[in-house]
Design brief:
single chain; 241 residues; alpha/beta; four-stranded antiparallel beta sheet; 12 strands; 40% helix; 21% strand; disordered N terminus; binds calcium ion
């Protein structure tokens, strides 16, 4: 057993006995105090009683829909790291989970080694990609890096942490092409290896939130920055005219 006494507490929510036991054993052997619940109801009680720093949530539970549970857990605890575990690799399910408040997802089967690397990446605080934290105004959009707030036409809009970081990474250098690799290393992890699908999923969610907000409040497109996909390279955010 490791002696990392300060490792954050983990709640594993998984009805599959083999996966649940493997996760619990693997996390405990790396020093994470870990509790394992097999139903959504038990997990909800445990989360309320113990406020774990990390929740690993299987989407396919016997009693409660995992996406619904993710939403409740996130509503009750804004601070925890919520990672959904899914056998469903379709984007729609992943996006539903992320929209419900999850910070990340892993598609089964995955190794405990990969899980631990993901957790370490999330637990490290990332400095801003470029320069000092600042407030950036681009037309109707304001990105306040100090307060970590995003406002459109004076209204604050709710972004998940990685959506905010992604927007800030692009908004700090308007007009510049930013590569996928730079976004992955700056927003997610300096030692990122593997898939950049997380970037696409987060960008899709960010674009959807910005579009919803501008449509709902009839903000003219011409007052908003545009985010252009640069095929084979990355993204560029342009200031409005
Ligand atoms: Ca399951």
């Amino acid at each position: 057993m490791s002696s990392m006494g300060s490792a954050p507490a983990v709640l594993v929510v998984e009805d599959d006995p083999t996966i649940g036991r493997n996760l619990q054993d693997g996390l405990r052997s790396h020093g994470y105090p870990t509790t394992w619940c097999r139903t959504g109801a038990a997990a909800l009680l445990q989360a309320r009683n113990a406020s774990p720093a990390i929740v690993l949530l299987d989407l396919g539970l016997p009693d409660i829909d995992g996406v619904d549970l993710a939403r409740v857990l996130r509503t009750e605890n804004r601070e925890m790291l919520l990672v959904i575990l899914t056998a469903r690799s379709e984007d729609i399910d992943v996006i539903a989970g992320l929209d419900a408040g999850a910070d990340d997802y892993l598609v089964k089967p995955f190794s405990v080694t990969v899980l631990l690397a993901r957790l370490r990446a999330h637990l490290r605080r990332q400095p801003p990609l470029e320069g000092d934290a600042q407030t950036i105004q681009l037309g109707a959009l304001i990105v306040d890096q100090v307060g970590r707030r995003c406002l459109i036409d004076g209204r604050e809009i709710q972004l998940r942490p990685k959506e905010f970081d992604l927007l800030a990474a692009l908004a700090t250098q308007p007009g510049a092409a930013v590569s996928r690799e730079d976004l992955m290393s700056g927003v997610w992890d300096a030692n990122w290896y593997g898939s950049t699908k997380t970037l696409d999923v987060t960008m899709a969610a960010l674009r959807r939130r910005l579009t919803e907000e501008t449509r709902q409040h009839e903000i003219p497109d011409t007052t908003m920055p545009t985010i252009t996909t640069l095929r084979g390279h990355g993204y560029r955010l342009d200031s409005p005219q």
